[in-house]
Amino acid sequence: MSPAVQATFRALADPTRREILQTLTAGPRTIAQVAGDFDMTRAAVKKHLTVLSDGGLITVTPRGRERINQLNPEGFAPVFDWLGFFDQVWDSRLDALKSAIEKDQDHD
């Protein structure tokens, strides 16, 4: 697994970070705005946002003294690609199941 995929999965592994991602679907937010949705300090929120940024799931844009955090949908691509590898496993198993069911129906 590539380091980019590992960083993305690390970012997604924490339930708080997943909740932060959900809040960012409403639009860009400052650290203070994100912190307002959670029972934790701004410093703790900033650490979570850093992990999300390192995982490529958000972009952070400085605006004066603030940092604007925004969801980066393209950041999920490594996860989809990694999971996509397993589609072939499921496809072959489902094809085998379909064949077995059809064979069983033919014998009835």
TrEMBL record:
HTH arsR-type domain mapped to chain residues: 1-91
Domain of life according to the entry: Bacteria
Database matches in Gene3D superfamilies: Winged helix-like DNA-binding domain superfamily/Winged helix DNA-binding domain
GO molecular function: DNA-binding transcription factor activity
A Pfam short name: HTH_20
NCBIfam families: HTH_metalloreg
PANTHER family, sorted: SLL0088 PROTEIN, TRANSCRIPTIONAL REGULATORY PROTEIN
Name the record gives this protein: ArsR family transcriptional regulator
Organism: Litoreibacter ponti
